[in-house]
Specification:
The protein is α+β, with helices and mostly antiparallel strands and 261 residues long. 25% of the residues lie in helices and 34% in strands. 26% of the residues are buried.
């Protein structure tokens, strides 16, 4: 395997874990159709610390959201490395429909973009873009719903409230998939009980690897600059397809035209 492909697989592992975790949550809570029954905002029931009310308020918040950004920190603990943890930091951008950007700032600058039916990773230091097969990224049935249609959280997970870990400002949910999924065996989700935003996620996969993400400085808006999701590499940037093959100018131009918004 070439050095380029080794790098690509290493990067793909980190990005895939981050993307998998967030897409599972988004696909489950961002509703495209009817909402779920729950307490109306401002009612006396809405103050009660119960799972049904909390899920309804989360679903309502993300269903009405058009676009937002947030800073993030991610820690990944791998069984293969005897529990050694790695940390990355950056900025997350999301816009409906089908626009997502993870901008890693440390320890190495990298940009991962998922747009329409395509995804790619840009490493500025290497002047290289690696394309990824969305079917490979969306192996989980739960993840696929993010691009193909959305589901209600309660249709996919058994949810319970961790009363001991919860506070007046933050509720902690335990989520267990109703159907077996190798990407996630269990989730813990920290929710801001004022804005009903997700502020932290911790997931464990079937192998026992743990992935934790914290979000800070949430900013909601109607739209984001389309340049954040544009595929327009400079001539000096090498573009590799998902098999590691270098694309020529004509192939790159075809992708650029297909992804033009």
């Amino acid at each position: 395997m070439s050095t380029e492909r080794k790098m690509g697989h290493t990067i793909f592992g980190s990005v895939s874990r981050l993307l998998t975790l967030w897409m599972i949550l988004l696909s489950a809570i961002i509703l495209d159709g009817e909402g779920v029954a729950g307490a109306a905002p401002g009612s006396s029931e809405s103050a009660a610390p119960n799972v049904e009310n909390l899920l309804s308020r989360m679903e309502e918040h993300y269903r009405t959201l058009s676009a937002y950004t947030a800073d993030f920190s991610q820690w990944t603990t791998s069984v293969a490395t005897a529990g050694a943890a790695t940390e990355v930091r950056g900025v997350f951008y999301y816009q409906k429909p089908r626009r997502m950007r993870w901008e890693y700032e440390a320890p190495e600058r990298q940009v991962f973009i998922a747009f329409k039916d395509s995804a790619w990773l840009y490493v500025p230091e290497d002047r290289q873009i690696t394309l990824f097969d969305m079917q490979e990224l969306l192996q989980s049935p739960i993840m696929r719903t993010f691009f193909e249609g959305v589901l209600q959280l309660r249709q996919n997970f058994q949810a319970s409230l961790d009363a001991a870990a919860s506070t007046e400002e933050t509720a902690v949910l335990h989520l267990t998939p109703k159907q077996e999924d190798p990407n996630v065996r269990a989730l813990r989700v920290w929710v801001d009980t004022k804005e009903f935003q997700i502020i932290e996620i911790e997931a464990q996969d079937a192998l026992g690897n743990t992935n934790r993400i914290q979000f800070h400085n949430h900013k909601e808006m109607q739209t984001l600059p389309k340049e954040l999701f544009t595929f327009d590499p400079e001539d000096s940037v090498v573009v590799l397809d998902s098999s590691g093959r270098k694309l020529n100018r004509e192939e790159i131009g075809a992708i650029r035209r297909r992804l033009r918004d």
